[in-house]
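Reminder to self: tokens first, then the designed residues, so the page reads top to bottom the way the pipeline ran.
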């Protein structure tokens, strides 16, 4: 009986742990950026650390696995595109938005991903839209609520909350203009993440090895981000310097804990309880980050932003309810033996883009749902 209880509660404990790990990464990144580190340089170093951590694991895994997956022109093109959109574009926009707005706003805006993925997947024909279905109506309504909540976060302020007078003098928040620009960047990041989730289907088909695929994506993202940084920083080599142990520690934590370890645990939870279970914990991240950011970073929390964040979370759960039936149908069609083999392949995959990830039904080229990983 004890073993059965542990088997039931262990995925829950792991998902809660993941939210705290990702919360630490979000707050640590915010501190490093405010400390003077360039968001673009942070992206480069983060994925460089992640690549260094992952390469030995990929090598050892390939020696134990007889199957080999060569990187041909087609798979190269898909991996390059996935890295460009899902990591380089997504991460640069996200961390720029995190720097310009706040940790709590960034974590709240990340809950938009399931709704945006539904819209994009429906637009390209990968998601069935039946207006006579209650589930489809729920997904549409949930999407509208999510987007409305995101707009409220960006545009509404209202009175300050949580000891605002004490926080005012210590606040590291920028101007209203920077806050709005940060929200726009975060919205763009969520769109890029949603597109990346859809592009995972052809990418995995061309290179059906999650571990190798993620390693190549991390390497490409490091090189792509380096080029972007060189262009935007205009050759300023001083921007590449880490000026404190704090910046180095936050970057290292984001690369190893926020990428490799996060996806390892996330993938395990998805295989145990499904993507819907994993996605349900993403609002917990928003709560943790909001509370810790107010306590330790003295970030100001406005009533308008709080209402918007609640709206995004409510919309998220409505969308997830609309997706629930599809998840059940897909899980019934999955071969248990295939699930075991897949789990072995995904032991430690690096993808910080799996905060609100999804388990993909490759045969039908259809998305099931997102789960969060933190970025």
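Designed residues (375 positions):
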């Amino acid at each position: 009986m004890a073993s059965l209880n542990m088997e039931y509660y262990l995925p829950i404990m792991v998902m809660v742990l993941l939210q705290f790990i990702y919360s630490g990464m979000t707050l640590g990144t915010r501190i490093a950026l405010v400390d003077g580190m360039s968001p673009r340089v942070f992206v480069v170093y983060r994925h460089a650390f992640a690549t260094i951590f992952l390469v030995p694991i990929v090598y050892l895994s390939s020696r134990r696995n007889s199957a080999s997956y060569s990187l041909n022109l087609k798979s190269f093109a898909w991996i390059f595109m996935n890295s460009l959109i899902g990591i380089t574009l997504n991460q640069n926009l996200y961390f720029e938005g995190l720097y310009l707005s706040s940790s709590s706003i960034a974590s709240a805006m990340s809950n938009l991903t399931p709704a945006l993925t539904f819209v994009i997947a429906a637009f390209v024909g990968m998601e069935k839209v039946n207006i006579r279905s209650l589930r489809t109506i729920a997904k549409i309504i949930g999407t509208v609520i999510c987007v409305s909540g995101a707009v409220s976060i960006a545009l509404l302020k209202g009175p300050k909350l949580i000891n605002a007078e004490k926080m005012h003098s210590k606040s590291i928040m920028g101007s209203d203009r920077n806050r709005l620009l940060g929200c726009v960047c975060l919205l763009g990041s969520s769109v890029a993440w949603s597109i990346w989730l859809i592009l995972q289907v052809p990418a995995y088909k061309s290179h059906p090895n999650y571990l190798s695929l993620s390693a190549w994506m991390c390497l490409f993202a490091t090189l792509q981000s380096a080029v972007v940084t060189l262009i935007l920083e205009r050759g300023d080599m001083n921007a590449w310097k880490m000026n404190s142990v704090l910046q180095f520690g936050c970057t290292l934590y984001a690369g190893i804990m926020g990428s490799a370890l996060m996806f390892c645990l996330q993938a395990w939870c998805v295989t145990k309880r499904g993507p819907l279970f994993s996605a349900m914990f993403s609002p917990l991240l928003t709560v943790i980050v909001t509370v810790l950011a107010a306590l330790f970073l003295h970030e100001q929390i406005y009533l308008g932003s709080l209402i918007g964040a609640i709206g995004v979370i409510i919309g998220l759960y409505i969308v997830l309810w609309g997706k629930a039936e599809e998840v059940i149908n897909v899980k019934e069609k999955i071969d248990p033996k295939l699930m075991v083999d897949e789990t072995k392949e995904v032991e430690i995959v690096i993808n910080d883009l799996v905060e609100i990830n999804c388990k993909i039904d490759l045969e039908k080229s259809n998305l099931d749902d997102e789960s969060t990983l933190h970025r």
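The radius of gyration is 20 Å.
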